[in-house]
Design goal:
By secondary structure, the protein is α/β, with parallel strands linked by helices. It has 14 helices and 7 strands. Helix 2 packs across helix 14, helix 7 packs antiparallel against helix 8 and helix 9 runs antiparallel to helix 10. The mean pLDDT is 90.
Length: 444
Amino acid sequence: MEEFEGLTREELVGMILELRGIVLALSKEVEELRSQLGGGGAGRVAPPWTKANRPERPKKDRKKRKKSFVRLRQTPTEIVYHAPQTCPDCGRPLSDGTVKWKRQVIEIPIMPVRVIEHRFIARRCGYCGKMHTAKADLSDHVIGKHRVGMNLMSLIAYLSTAGRMTKRTIQSFIKALYGLHLGLGEISEILHTVAGCGTGEMNRLLALVRGSPYINADETGWREDGLNGYIWTFSTRDVRYFIHRKSRSGEIPRETIGDRYEGVVVTDCYAGYNGVLADRQVCWAHLARDLHKLKEQNADDDPVISWADEVKSVYDRAREFRSKNPMKRRAHRILFEEEISKLAEPCAGLQMPQGVLAKRFMDHLEELFMFVEYPEVPSENNGAERALRPAVIARKVCGGTRSQKGSETKMTLMSLFGTWHIRGLDMLDSCRQMLTGRSVLFPA
């Protein structure tokens, strides 16, 4: 109010009259706007876009979500009731009542291991005088002369393969959970026994691989007794098959796949697969990464970037192509190969940034678009990459195996557990079923 001190009465009246004129002008403007919107005052009509004038739409039932984000309730195995016994105000006893709310607590039992001792009683016949000892079939509980039952054997194999635990970690885990000490040698023998029970399964898995319309093949390093070797995987949509070899030569895939395979082998551009006597599809995921790397290394070279984009566009159009006519698919495969040839042949082997990559395209020209002619064949080798990933992690954890028998055991367990996993089966129960002689992969 300091700004109004010292003003005369006439100056104050002048300011009031000026403000009154401004208020009247604004009021007039507001009335004009109201009239343009359909009326004014109490009888004003709301504009057509307001909620009051919208037509009423029939209410639809709320669409259920495919996945609820609330905490999942388990089926209770035990119910504990909590109820007040007396009134806290007057002390009168209370009875009956209703469930107000619930809370679930998930807990695991901590119990010692069960040691079951089977005693075989010998009895003498009073008539003939001969001794007779009871005979019991324990084949559903234990294998051979092992002292460990099938449930524990399955758990150890599961922890070693699916859990990627070392033998010492398994030893401490069993000790902490069940109070049972198992020697490292005994754990090794248990794994060898489980793998031995899966030998027949492995032969059948190899037959499934050889009968599949396509095979994803790849390899990675693996150390055996400190010496470098390789894990080879030959996988399909629902089968995982692993072998260990000390060599990375082309004889390994030829030996595994066989000379009569009639499908398509999906691989990277490694020359070891050149001797496979079957149609081959090279991995476009590797080629696409090479194209991307070429563009990054030559970001200022517009012709190189344009060349890489044109090659990638041919692949994108090939992936989008669909036809039910086999002859049409084969014709389009040849057309896509001709497009790549026109782009790669002028640059192949020359001192150009794209020269090496162009030569690779020309060397594998007939293996670039097998997925166009055969729609069931993938254009990339991600199936083999995903199959090898657990083996790579296991190699980082344990460093490899220490003997040829250990490598064979590892490959068998990885093949079985990998196949159970890719088919969505319970791996622990599947292993238990296999030990009892009942195969979940090849039921009778």
